Amino acid sequence: MKNWKALVVFTVCILTSYSSHCQILKGEELKSLTNENFNIAFTNLRHFLKLQNDGNYPEQIDKNKHWCDSVFRKLNFKTQTIKTDGAPLLFAEKIYKKNYKSILFYLQVDGQPVDSSAWSQTDPFTPIIKEFKNGIWSPIEIDSEQNIYDDDWRIFARSASDSKGPAMSLISALQILQEQNINPQYNIKVIMDFQEELGSPDLPKAVLENKDLLSAEMLFIMDGTRHLSNLPTLTYGARGIATATIKVFGPKYALHSGQYGNYAPNPVFEAARLISSLKDDRGIVQIPGFYDGVVLTERDKQLLAMIPENNDSLNTRLGIFSSEHVASTYQEALQFPSLNIRGLKAAYTGKEVRTLIPEDVVIEIDMRLVLETPAERQLELLRNHIIKQGYHLVDSVATSEDRATFKKLAAYEYRIGSKPFRTDMDTDIGKFLNSALEKVFGDDIVNMRTTGGSQPMAPFIQTLKIPAVSIRIPNPDNNIHGPDENLRLGNYREGILSCLAILTEPLP
Asked: What pLDDT is recorded for position 146?
């Protein structure tokens, strides 16, 4: 009797070969599903990329939100708009079973502003397929019905990599599973952010006010590029960011260098001395206390050393003679806060150059932060350092009285962006994701402790008390934020495959 019952169960599972209740899909089955459905997934991506998505423009946000809402409704998700003081968020949820645990996915939908004149195509929102031939990327024509694509072809459009491509990887995987009548063994929640490139200013408050709605076991972030090896990558943290603007004042107005040279001080020289005081010739920040609290354990160093890279090849790739000396390797360097001059402006250059002593110099700074170096502390350290260099600081404009009283004058303004986060790699979330991806990629998976960039994940981690990992899909040479942003088709294919593997993996 027992044998007869077992045979019945086995037979039912065979007859319903893709039933989520009877079968754990193998890697080869997931690969077949990906390849069979790649044409429609690619077509959907191209449609999505046609929508302009600058988060500064409400009408563009609205079109993208409507598109996402429609897609998730077709997947039988319940959707709702989360109103904020600024741009809205979109939430989608599908409950497969009431007693299932939930996983929360974060999707970034907005993109950086574009300068169309800098692109090698007329419209950054008209996706173009290109192949690398004779040393250049050349457009190619493809049949709308074809299902055979070269993995090394690329699609060029704003947000192809950051981050509509990753978002569509998840959506495409959900569409495939729905078509095959396969259900994940956990419930799914999705939060869509339309102002990530603006620092997600309203996200922290929205998460706090909707913590019950967003509650989940884990947070998966569909954003960020892969390791330089272009292997499937999981990243367990991100640095935060704070920016500062320093304006060093010179004369009230620009002066003729012939009439006033040797008499009126040029603020560029003062600015240069201030900038040079920030770092020594080894690249180490000279602000006292800047690195305080950052310690790498032997286990940390062991995990970092497992990442496949070496300094020589990286330096060649970047076109630099040698690295700065904050740490011994690139991965270790990412574990420390950084200080960067991101912009510098004084008078005129090029065809507009003039023989003038400029009235001021503007220094734009960004600082990347780690958990041990909060923004407030780092910004105050920078402010104190400027004062120690002999400057009197004003809010924005130097008055005549200020100019008569102080030899060195500067304005100091700052902004705090995303906070840093970091998830322990040796926990259930890492084990779950590695188990899922190993089904389709074997051991070719890179686990990174943190990324150098920033992501607005801290509100979720702090408020929801859940671990977070970024699932990296785009190729590392994707021109993210710049002209000719692109996504390698092989990466998009592997992104869909990654999501299928994750969606069909049982939770621990």
From this structure: 63
Cα 423 to Cα 480: distance, rounded to the nearest angstrom? 25
Tell me which residues of the chain have a pLDDT lower than 50: 1-22
Which residues are within 8 A (CB) of 254 and not within 5 positions of it... i.e. 6 or more apart? 347, 356, 357, 358, 359
Instruction: Give the domain extent around 397.
Output: 240-294+336-416
- CA separation, residue 197 to residues 50, 376, 418, 453, 495 (Å): 18, 21, 10, 12, 22
Q: How far apart are CA 447 and CA 439, in angstroms?
A: 16
Residues 6+ apart with CB under 8 A from 441: 231, 232, 494, 498
User: Which H or E element spans position 133?
Assistant: strand 128-133
Phi-psi region of 51 (alpha: psi -120 to 50; beta: other; left: phi over 0): beta
* Residue 242: its H or E element: strand 240-249
Q: Which of 398, 416, 434 delimits the end of a domain?
A: 416
Yes or no: say if 221 and 455 are a contact pair by the CB < 8 Å rule.
yes
Return d(Cα 193, Cα 111) in angstroms, integer: 11
- Residue spans of beta strands (DSSP E) within 304-402: 338-345, 356-357, 360-369, 392-394
Q: What is the reported pTM?
A: 0.86
Determine contact, residues 394/402, Cβ cutoff 8 Å.
Answer: yes
Tokens of 414: 């700052």
Q: Is residue 13 domain-shared with residue 71, that is, in the same domain?
A: yes
Q: In a 3-state reduction of DSSP, which class is residue 419?
A: coil
What integer pLDDT is reported at residue 145 of this predicted model? Answer: 65
Domain count, the chain: 2
CA 359, CA 248: separation in Å to the nearest integer?
9
CATH number of the domain bearing residue 207 = 3.40.630.10
Maximum distance among all alpha carbons in the chain? 108
Nearest-10 crossing angle of helices 489-503, 27-36: 130
What burial class does residue 41 get, using C-beta atoms within 10 Å of its C-beta: 0-12 exposed, 13-18 middle, 19+ buried? buried
Alpha-helical segments (H) within 243-362 = 257-260, 267-278, 298-305, 311-318, 330-333
pLDDT at site 37: 95
Q: From the CA atom positions of the chain, what is the Rg in Å?
A: 26
